[in-house]
Recover the amino acids of this structure.
């Protein structure tokens, strides 16, 4: 099956700093989503981004499908950005809906 | 108030016991999914359903069963055959196809 690797595994930021999270995947995909899991376990969808660039407030994401990676940018980080960020992909050859998740990047933003 | 509800929030299972986790949605979504999350790991797909009265196994279906008798409901039963059931269980829905998935708040299952 497809491999999804996220880096770095852990990230500690001071409030106001910028950061970049990376997601590499081992095969062609037609679906890529970024999620944020808060400390209470709730997952929120941040982006549906199989290709191209999107922005939502202080967050933006870029997927280069031909080179099999996606980047999530956090600018001017806030303590509420703390949590785990997951990248999930759906392999082109798979039936729709079957997302494969990476292991996540644990982000801690300190005041 | 709308969205996806999961109950209970915490569940304790004794050895050899079957337990059922509830997932209900009022978003009128066709597709529903069950994931398992172990500490420090990503989510793994257990079962998914694209339409009422139909469901497919995910990557780790052994020891679990589901039903989809109503569009709004997709209960997950953790059977005694699941030898390591302690985990965080998350239900998700979407309109079907390769669409954004939306998640419920989760159920934490602990074996006594």
């Amino acid at each position: 099956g497809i491999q999804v690797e996220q880096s770095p595994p852990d990230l500690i930021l001071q409030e106001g700093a910028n950061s970049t999270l990376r997601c590499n995947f081992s095969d062609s995909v037609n679906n890529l989503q970024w999620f944020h899991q808060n400390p209470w376990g709730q997952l929120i969808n941040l982006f549906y981004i199989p290709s191209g660039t999107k922005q939502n407030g202080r967050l933006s994401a870029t997927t280069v499908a031909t080179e099999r990676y996606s980047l999530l940018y956090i600018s001017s980080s806030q303590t509420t950005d703390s949590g785990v960020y997951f990248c999930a992909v759906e392999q082109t050859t798979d039936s729709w809906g079957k997302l494969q998740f990476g292991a996540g990047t644990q982000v801690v933003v300190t005041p | 108030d709308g969205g996806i509800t999961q109950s209970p929030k915490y569940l304790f299972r004794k050895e050899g016991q079957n337990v059922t986790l509830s997932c209900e949605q009022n978003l009128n979504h066709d597709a529903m999914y069950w994931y398992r999350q172990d500490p420090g790991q990503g989510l793994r797909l257990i079962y998914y359903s694209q339409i009422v009265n139909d469901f497919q196994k995910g990557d780790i279906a052994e020891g679990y069963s589901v039903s989809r008798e109503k569009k709004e409901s997709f209960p997950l039963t953790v059977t005694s055959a699941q030898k390591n059931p302690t985990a965080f269980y998350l239900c998700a829905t979407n309109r079907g196809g390769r669409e954004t998935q939306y998640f419920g708040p989760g159920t934490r299952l602990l074996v006594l």
